Amino acid sequence: MPKTIALVEDDAAIRENYIVALKAQGYQVQAYEDRPTAADAFSTSLPDLAIIDIGLKDEMEGGFVLCQQLRSLSQTLPIIFFTARDNDVDTISGLRMGADDYLTKDISMAHLLARIAALFRRIDLMAAPNAQKDELKIGELCVDVSRMTVKWQGQPVALTVTEFWMLHALIKHPGHVKSRQQLMDESRMVVDDTTITSHIKRMRKKFVQLDGQFDHIDTVYGMGYRWQL
């Protein structure tokens, strides 16, 4: 049965463009132009995944409110913020509210579709208790590649799908520097250098919140980043 994606986007032209692209991938699409309409629909029936813009018509943070409403209805529903707003405050706010990923509209449609597929895969694997583990262990880091989950000192690290693949790229060869281009390639995304830097900063902060002594994600100025043993 096809997966259902809810798309909440107030720009009609952008909304129609995404509807066409998502339907071409075999998804069913429920599109909404504002928060109240979407919220009413979600109170009756939940989609399999939601893509939400932050600014919705006259509500500058309507997407944040909608995300909170969705999380009160389901703790596991995959939620992607897809917005033109690319700053740390908005991103961190969105992720703290329970979004699974935060993508900016300068990425390619192929990247968005890859993120959607990855989120569905992660949900399916998490629901399969007997799924075979594919673990990488480096010191106090434990990464289950199959389930796309990460633990540090035994504690879960709530990484987005984008952050997970960037971390995976770094730990495959600890100590080796990965350029921004390599991180983009292995994370299956096309963004500017500033966005890569923001992802690294947010990922590092999540580890530091669990362990104030964490210092394993190393910036090599002018070259890129590495996982330092």
From TrEMBL:
DNA-binding region: 133-229
GO cellular component, one term: protein-DNA complex
Gene3D superfamilies noted in UniProt: 3.40.50.2300, 6.10.250.690, Winged helix-like DNA-binding domain superfamily/Winged helix DNA-binding domain
Residues where 4-aspartylphosphate is found: 53
BP-aspect Gene Ontology terms: regulation of DNA-templated transcription
Domain (Response regulatory): residue spans on this chain: 4-120
Any Pfam family hit: Response_reg
PANTHER family: DNA-BINDING DUAL MASTER TRANSCRIPTIONAL REGULATOR RPAA (PTHR48111:SF21), REGULATOR OF RPOS (PTHR48111)
Protein name: Proteobacterial dedicated sortase system response regulator
Record organism: Alteromonas profundi
